[in-house]
UniProtKB/TrEMBL annotation:
Pfam families: ParA. InterPro entries: Mrp/NBP35_ATP-bd, P-loop_NTPase, YlxH/NBP35. Gene3D superfamilies: P-loop containing nucleotide triphosphate hydrolases. Residues 1-21 are annotated as: Disordered. This is Cytosolic Fe-S cluster assembly factor NBP35. Residues 1-15 have a biased composition (Gly residues). Signal peptide: none annotated. Keywords: ATP-binding, Iron, Iron-sulfur, Metal-binding, Nucleotide-binding. One of its GO terms (molecular function) is iron-sulfur cluster binding.
Amino acid sequence: MESSGGDGGGGGGGSNVPEDANDHKIHRLSCGASVSCGIPRPVDPLLIDFAFAADCPGTQSENAGKEEPCAGCPNQQVCATAPKGPDPDLPAISDRMSNVKHKILVMSGKGGVGKSTFSTQLSFALAEMDYEVGLFDIDLCGPSIPKMLGLEGQDIHQSNFGWQPVYVESNLGVMSIGFLLRNQDDAVAWMGPRKNGTSDENISIVKLLKSTGIDGAIIVTTPQQVSLIDVRKGINFCKMVGVPVLGVIENMSGLRQAISDMRFVKPSESGETDVTDWALEYIKEKAPDLLSVLACSEAFDSSKGGAEKMCHEMGVPFLGKVPMDPQLGKAVEEGRSCFNDQKCSASAPALKQIIEKLIKHSKTS
């Protein structure tokens, strides 16, 4: 299961729900349309059982939006008028999810760190091990999972049991808002208040699934401090709402690329000249063993210790590093597993080790 980072979610505004919000027909969304007009009973992300400030009365309190600390809060009106009590859909969700043995969130707190890439490759790997796998893409504003699994243009269907996922294989099903868009370039406007940098998706998914038994969250980051600063908030979010952190993955941990896949240029005052053919032929003639060597470079500054040091400081497990591998990027673009061939020689072994750690943890927990 995949959860988006802090870059998703909607802007501020009210929580007006359209009259046809409970219409269970599947509608494709037009550009700029509110997502709620096509999804059964949209969940107001403010209906959450925890508060973010010590003086906040909490959204479930009868005094929500009415006490002195509420004055000036942009969500005051929403809190004051929102229905109180548990979401009536929770029992049905718990019943359906009771058949899912393990439920894992892939999160970050930072956008663009590789959550979708890891989620798809984790799903491919588990499916190839004959596990029954479901991948739920909750990135509402930038759903990329259909592309990464080679499912662009596919439709979801409705049956007596509800919406049916799209299948990559018989044991790998996928659900994404990307399947609802009339055009893949359409924008999605999800109306909902946001609080403290934690996106609506993260809050809502924890609210809806917490009672079903979440195994925990996998946190994805990149090595540099500008990412780790936000990822720390994501880890603290998990601790605050009682979701175990299964571990942290340092993605894009240095560039690893076979010399035979590299492009060579000769700079000059007038620009650059491509000398790839000459360089590879020269290497082949003078030092052929180099063609089987990986070139390594630190793409991001990790001088502060990176994710491993952060994990030690915050008391959470460190799962490992996944290098920046152009071949992995190509596999994702083509919607295929990086484990099916030897092309992803830099990233596939690292991903495999991390996945084996997760499986071992699931069997012992």
